[in-house]
Amino acid sequence: MTKTITFNELRQLKDSLPDGSMHRIADKLNVTVQTVRNYFGGSNYDFGKNQGVHIEPGPNGGIVVLDDPTIYDMAIEILKEQDEKAE
């Protein structure tokens, strides 16, 4: 199932993640950390792969279509865990 968000929302999610989250997601999915970074808007394809992220120009940084929201969902779960620890 695809997910559509703005590029700014995707970057805000990435910027909200605690230190080590990229490594945690990469380890769970058995991919490189750079692949996870590319998912969040990076563009280093020498050390990482494209994870089905399509960016269309537009307001708020453009529209992003995520072919597979697994990394997005994992990032949301990490933020929820962080919020629960803070309470």
List low-confidence stretches. Answer: none
Q: How much helical structure, as a percent, in the residues?
A: 40-55%
Tell the overall outline.
Answer: globular
In order across it, which strands form the biggest sheet?
A: 1-3-2
In whole angstroms, the N-to-C terminal distance is 32 Å
Relative strand content:
5-15%
Number of strands: 3
Content-based structural category: alpha+beta
Order of helices and strands: EHHHEEH
The largest β sheet comes out as:
3 strands, antiparallel
Mean pLDDT: 86
List the total number of helices.
4
Rg calculated over all Cα atoms: 13 Å
Which properties best describe this structure?
single chain; alpha+beta; 3-stranded antiparallel β-sheet
Structure report:
The protein has 87 residues and is an alpha+beta fold. Helix content is 49%, strand content 14%. The chain is built from 4 helices and 3 strands. It has helices at residues 7-16, 21-29, 33-39, 70-86; strands at residues 3-6, 53-56, 63-66. A 3-stranded antiparallel β-sheet has the order 1-3-2. It is globular. The N and C termini lie far apart (32 Å). 16% of the residues are buried.
List the helices and strands and how they pair.
Layout (H helix, E strand, L loop, with lengths): L2 E4 H10 L4 H9 L3 H7 L13 E4 L6 E4 L3 H17 L1
Antiparallel strand pairs: 1-3, 2-3
Helix pairs in contact: 1-4, 2-3
Summarize the structure.
With 87 residues, the chain is an alpha+beta fold. It has helices at 7-16, 21-29, 33-39, 70-86; strands spanning 3-6, 53-56, 63-66. Strands 1-3-2 form a three-stranded antiparallel sheet.
